[in-house]
Amino acid sequence: MRVDGPKITTAAGLNRIDRPKVNEARARAREAAEALSEDRLSLSSRALQVRDIEPVLSVMPSVRADLVNRLREQIQRGEYQVDPGRLADLLIRLRVVEP
Fold first, then answer.
1. Which one of 24, 59, 62, 63 is separated from 38 by 20 to 30 angstroms, measured CA to CA?
2. Which residues in the chain show pLDDT less than 70?
3. 17: helix, coil or strand?
4. For the whole model, what pTM was predicted?
5. Longest dimension (CA), the chain
């Protein structure tokens, strides 16, 4: 660029904006924004496992009546014994308590 007093002369095409490139860039930015705004669902491997076993669980009884009745009878007769070590291991495995 050369300055000659009050008149400014610019190099050819220096201040010209290439409209097709600007419009193309705007279109790409719009497409990227639209792609980000789409709803997506992603399931973890654990969720997929649960989904696969749901049909099996739905046909199983929610209470094992035979086990409940057997334990109830043992308790009534005073025969039911709790193994403290086994109970502690179970509570730790289930993260009910920390070791």
1. 24
2. 1-20, 22, 36-38
3. coil
4. 0.35
5. 114
Q: Could you tell me which of 69, 71, 87 has the C-alpha nearest to residue 79?
A: 71
> Given this model, what pLDDT does residue 68 score?
94
Residue pair 17/4 in contact by the 8 Å Cβ criterion: no
Q: What is the pLDDT of residue 83?
A: 95
Identify whether the C-beta of residue 9 lies closer than 8 Å to the C-beta of residue 1. Answer: yes
In angstroms, what is the C-alpha Rg of the chain? 37
Place of tokens 């209470």: 63
Q: Are 1 and 8 in contact (CB under 8 A)?
A: yes
Residue 59 corresponds to which amino acid? V
Q: What is the pLDDT of residues 39-54, one digit of tens each?
A: 777 888 888 888 888 8
Beta carbons within 8 Å of 11's beta carbon, 6+ residues apart: 1
Return the sign of the alpha-carbon dihedral for residues 59, 65, 70, 76: positive
